């Protein structure tokens, strides 16, 4: 497993060591000891989630407010996504900045997202399976989000957004500047 830092503190790209042969491939998806050693993060994941989506589905930006914030380890088991996170940590030098990465079944990259981030992804292929581990249980009253097209964030989605499929809930999320309780 290799871990790459990003320009945002504590946000890591994880590249597993893949063993390929004529039968297929094998890789260790997660190893607590190696993860802690390489990132310095002492995370205890408590739940695994799986979402299946059609092409052009945009989910997010979602996050849980304190004290129920969640760190996530995300990956794509089938298909491809453009994954985007926004730093919502008020004391961070990168507050309000975003990071994006293409995650796919082919590249097998993972993204570790610490607590304090809003998260969204756009599916680029049909039948995409998006898998993630979280370190805190979902609490409905703590759920929050921001608009995917917030002009202050100026996210480059790299794709034609006129084709996206968006839930009514996500379409009605507030802009970052309108959130009072981060």
Essential attributes:
182 residues, mainly beta, 6-stranded antiparallel β-sheet, 5-stranded antiparallel β-sheet, 2 helices
Q: What is the CATH architecture term?
A: Sandwich
How many domain units?
A: 1
What's the CATH H-level homologous superfamily?
Answer: Jelly Rolls
**How confident overall, as mean pLDDT?**
94
Question: Beta-strand level of the residues, as a percent range?
Answer: 35-45%
Morphology call: globular
E-strand count: 13
What is the element string, with H for helices and E for strands?
EEEEHEEEEEEEEEH
What is the name of the CATH class?
Mainly Beta
What's the CATH topology label?
A: Jelly Rolls
The percentage helix is under 10%
The total count of helices amounts to: 2
Radius of gyration computed on alpha carbons: 16 Å
Helix/strand/pairing category: mainly beta
Q: If strands are numbered along the chain, what order do they take across the biggest sheet?
A: 1-2-10-7-12-5
Distance between the first and last residues' Cα: 33 Å
Given as residue ranges, the uncertain stretches (5+ residues, pLDDT < 50) are none
């Amino acid at each position: 497993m290799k871990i790459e830092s990003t320009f945002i503190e504590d946000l890591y790209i994880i590249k597993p060591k893949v063993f390929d042969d004529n039968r297929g491939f094998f890789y260790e998806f997660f190893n607590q000891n190696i993860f802690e050693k390489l990132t310095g993060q002492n995370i205890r994941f408590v739940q695994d989630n799986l979402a299946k989506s059609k092409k052009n589905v945009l989910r997010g930006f979602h996050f849980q407010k304190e004290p129920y914030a969640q760190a996530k380890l995300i990956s794509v088991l089938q298909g491809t996504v453009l994954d985007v996170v926004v730093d919502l940590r008020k004391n961070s030098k990168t507050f309000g900045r975003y990071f994006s990465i293409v995650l796919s079944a082919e590249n097998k990259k993972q993204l570790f997202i610490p607590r304090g981030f809003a998260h969204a992804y756009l599916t680029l292929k049909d039948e995409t399976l998006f898998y993630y581990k979280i370190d805190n249980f979902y609490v409905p009253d703590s759920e929050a989000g921001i608009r995917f097209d917030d002009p202050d964030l100026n996210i480059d989605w790299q794709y034609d957004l006129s084709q996206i499929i968006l839930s009514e809930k996500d379409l009605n999320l507030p802009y970052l500047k309108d959130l009072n309780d981060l």
